[in-house]
Amino acid sequence: MRLDDWMRNRDRVLVMGVLNVTPDSFFDGGQHMTTKAAVNHALEMIRDGADIVDVGGESSRPGAAPVPGEVELSRVVPVITGIRESSDVLISVDTTKSRVARAALAAGADIVNDISALRFDPEMGPLIAEADACVVLMHMQGTPRTMQENPTYSDPVEEIKEFFSARMEAAVRAGIPEERIILDPGIGFGKRLEHNLAILRGIGSFLELGAPVLIGLSRKSFLGELLGLPPAERLVGTVAANAVAVRNGADIIRVHDVKEGRQTADVARRLREDAT
Ligand code: 9MG
Question: Is 94's C-beta closer than 6 angstroms to any atom of ligand 1?
Answer without folding.
Answer: yes
